Here is the input.
Amino acid sequence: MRAILVVLALLCAQSVSAKDDVPFPELSTEVYCLDLVSKMLDKGEQQVEKEKCLGDEAALKRKLKSLWHLALLESQQYLVAQYYKEERNQTYITAAHYTAQGVGLACMDGRLDCRFPPASADDLKTFPYLNSPAYCSATIVGGMGEKARQAKTKECLDNEEMLKRQLQPIWSVVDKKLVDFCMPLLFHIKQHSYKMLQMCVASRLGNACILGSVDCKFKS
Here is the structure.
């Protein structure tokens, strides 16, 4: 959840256009894995679990390396600055959390070909219908002529409608507990928009891609 809060807080400054990516982190995961098994009394079991941890980390590293360029720039920067100064925090599990939002957004906008069960009528019963006109009206700055204001409002509403259409088909893979978390948060920060909802749920879809429960491939 902390990763979601960070991305939402940075959203206003974020652009998903071309950017200078932070280099993929080459982590020393052995200290993390040793710390993970350090309380085990049986030395043989400890060694087995340590090797399993290292294997899992290596597999996750291979998966993330191909997806890292999709991670949001602010997420990349925050991850490297806040988590990887100490070796005991060097795990690709954390990297996965901070890569997931960007991967989920790539699924939604078509940069990744993601196969997931279509949302059913029961899924869509929980889909939130937000007051986009009120949101768009609130985002229009003062001092704008009537025609310019109308054009900006239409652009905002068209974008909201596009985002709603992107979100509805993936609702089958969205954790409803996450939605219960997202909606009060959106009202708290006074951003009742599909743009913010998209960011809030993108991590769930991206995480499903990373873990393999949703089939996600780059388009050829």
Q: What stands out?
A: The longest helix spans residues 43-65. Residues 3-18 have pLDDT under 50 and may be disordered. The two ends are 33 Å apart (CA to CA).
